[in-house]
Design a protein that fits this description.
By secondary structure, the chain is an alpha/beta fold. The protein has one domain: TIM Barrel. It is built from eleven helices and twelve strands. β2 and β3 form a beta hairpin. The mean pLDDT is about 95. The protein binds ligand PBG. Ligand PBG binds next to α6.
Length: about 325
């Protein structure tokens, strides 16, 4: 009790250094990269200042820069030349993600872990994460599963170190695990976007990868932002199906979910600091409304809530900042 207890005694710079309860390290970061097969020059993404679509060539240079900064992993998103109704360019041997994976691994080997986002929305003409029945405008769950399995195998064959299914189809983790195991990729881990909410904070990303949808929205497969118990069921399900790492997405508006997931399941836990979270802070910073320190503060809050690793478009900024 005051005056015996004075909490301010520990608030000197050196004490803070020693007793900080949460530390953010370069090791905690996963950098998202966009590679666009149609480009010969990198192209800025207007809704995400500072982030660009890479060409099939420049993506390798960018990956090298990340590795030089000590960032351990990147997650690849591809924009194909051609889209079709079933997203068949998600799984060709020489499709955009497979080529980029192969090229990055050839250049960097163990210096960079390549995670491949595993979803159909960038590859389908309708922009949904699964096969569609046009008559009913329904996104079909079960017919999508074998395509996801096939895509996982093609990504592993190209050299992906880990696959990350993000389409929120029921049973996706089990199908992918089975497909990988049957093709001798039983050592490839799965990071599942387990509790992925139907969120407005993905807006800028959809510009970044041209995955706006032709009709409807994603609320028949992604989660209702109002629900927390349901997130525990999603996570429990994915663990049973064989997920190695569990992801919560978005991060900042869902810190309570990250906290619950970490404490109820004790699994390796990832959080996706999504495009809208990036653009909000970056936009305010560019206008002089927020100081750069807001980046670290928001990422620390994500770690404090229970995330082990963070997927963030700030990865490079943070790495440079933490090294400095
Ligand atoms: C697609 C996918 C999305 C993101 C990652 N994978 C968008 C969506 O579901 O619409 C969002 C990433 C971000 O906003 O940074 N399956």
């Amino acid at each position: 009790m005051f005056p015996t207890t004075r909490l301010r005694r520990l608030r000197t710079p050196v004490m803070k250094r020693m007793f900080s309860e949460t530390k953010l390290s370069v090791d905690d970061l996963i950098a998202p990269l966009f590679v666009d097969e149609n480009l010969t020059q990198p192209q800025p993404i207007p809704s995400m200042p500072g982030i660009q679509r890479e060409t099939p060539k420049s993506v390798v240079d960018e990956a090298k820069e990340l590795a030089d900064l000590g960032i351990p992993a990147l997650i690849l998103f591809g924009i194909p030349k051609e889209k079709d109704e079933t997203g068949s360019h998600a799984y060709g041997e020489n499709d955009v993600v497979q080529n980029a994976t192969r090229d990055i691994k050839a250049e960097l080997g163990d210096d960079m872990m390549v995670i491949t986002d595993l979803c159909l929305c960038e590859f389908t003409t309708h922009g949904h994460c699964g096969v569609v029945d046009y008559d009913t405008e329904e996104i079909l769950n079960d017919p999508t599963l074998p395509i996801l399995g096939k895509t996982a195998v093609s990504q592993a064959r190209a050299g992906a170190d880990m696959v990350a299914p993000s389409g929120m189809m029921d049973g996706m983790v089990a199908s992918i695990r089975k497909a990988l195991d049957q093709n001798s990729y039983s050592n490839i881990p799965i990071m599942s976007y387990a509790a992925k909410y139907s969120s407005s904070f993905y807006g800028p990303f959809r510009d970044a990868v041209d995955s706006g949808y032709a009709f409807g929205d994603r609320s028949t497969y992604q989660m209702d932002p109002a629900n927390s118990n349901e997130a525990m069921r999603e996570v429990e399900q994915d663990i049973k199906e064989g997920a190695d790492i569990i992801m919560v997405k978005p991060a900042l508006p869902y810190l309570d979910i990250i906290y619950r997931v970490k404490h109820e399941f004790n699994m390796p836990t990832a959080a996706y600091n999504v495009s809208g979270e990036y653009s909000m802070i970056k936009g305010a910073m560019d206008n002089g409304w927020l100081a750069e320190k807001a980046i670290i503060e928001s990422l620390i809050s994500i770690k404090r809530s229970g995330a082990d690793v963070i997927l963030t478009y700030f990865a490079k900024d943070v790495a440079i900042n933490l090294i400095r």
